[in-house]
Amino acid sequence: MSELKRTPLYDLHVSLGAKMVPFAGYDMPVQYPAGVMKEHIHTREAAGLFDVSHMGQVILRPKSGQIADAALALESLVPVSILALAEGRQRYALFTNEDGGILDDLMVANRGDHLFLVVDAACKDADIAHLRSHLSEICDIEQITDRALVALQGPQAEAAFARLVPEVADMRFMDVATVSWQGVDLWVSRSGYTGEDGYEISVPASFVVEFAKALLAIDAVAPIGLGARDALRLEAGLCLYGSDIDTTTSPVEGALEWAIQKARRSGGERAGGFPGADRILDELANGATRRRVGLLPNGRAPMRAGTVLYSGDKRVGEVTSGAFGPTLGAPMSMGYVASDYASVGTVLEGDVRGKRLPVTVAAMPFRPSNYKRQTTKRDQ
């Protein structure tokens, strides 16, 4: 087994009493002394600071100098409208394969003269190889290795971050901006993976400890580990690549068709032209045979990944993620069921250690998300 990598914040995690575990090839904090439950609630009520430096940061710079060329090039790999992405904005995207499966999910930002991508930690080497294999003639592709990435999430994230950098308060959900803190450029997006308002912040690795300590010095901010992050994203109905979506799931099966804009659908001005288009466009028109759904077990025991779902004696699906939801106050899961059983309110049974227990198909997110979508002064 290869040696685990460490993020630039490793020593800080250890000094804060974190329990470190292997994750996506890195030694990462799963929890701090407060514990997963308290960390979860703190993020929902105040602000949590997450180390996400294990994720991949990539710049696509068009050789022509025209950002539209980079956008159109990336559109050959994703079923998403990148050309329509305005400068200073970000959107969710999916790399698909020729079978219509999902290679990874990612965030794409238009930063004026280049596109900035944040890709999944476990897939970043494959993603960068994929980009280089297909886009190198049109774009210079640069993996950013000298910057860390942190996320500040929760209802008090804006107030906390604005104490250090006041202008971030004017950003809205999915805005991106470069701001300065103590002479250092921070690449900021107003986004996250918790269902809360917040920011993801790319920081030069040599300054990230100082920056993290400045945030943690604010009373509302506490360090949060991977354990709470997983329950937070599950309550928010957000997928984990490798668990809830992978090469065997299509965007439509994964209930991610909201990420495919009209321009890339049948009849759109740039319809198709991405890997797996035939299958994906057909499923958009006619539906898929199975769907990712929310699931609420009727008892107190979580139904975890691998739990088989039945309707009577018929196997109709499987759980892909499951945990207790601290905010929900109950267990929650997501998984795939045959489309005939995907309607909210459908009661199924899950096989938990040989015992059939009732579970109900439910809408996601399991609790309302709190993104800052309202207009700001510059939109008026």
What does this molecule look like?
Helix content is 19%, strand content 33%. With 380 residues, the chain is α+β, with helices and mostly antiparallel strands. The protein has a six-stranded mixed beta sheet. The chain has a six-stranded antiparallel barrel with strand order 14-17-16-15-18-19. β16 (314-325) and β17 (330-338) form a beta hairpin. 46% of the residues are buried. The model is unreliable at 375-380 (pLDDT under 50).
**CATH top level label of the domain at 10-52 and 146-235:** Alpha Beta
CATH superfamily of the domain at 10-52 and 146-235: Probable tRNA modification gtpase trme, domain 1
- Note the gap between the termini: 55 Å
The strands making up the biggest β-sheet line up spatially as 10-11-12-9-3-13
Low-confidence stretches: 375-380
Main beta-sheet annotation: 6 strands, mixed
Radius of gyration: 21 Å
For the record, the CATH architecture of the domain at 10-52 and 146-235 stands as: 2-Layer Sandwich
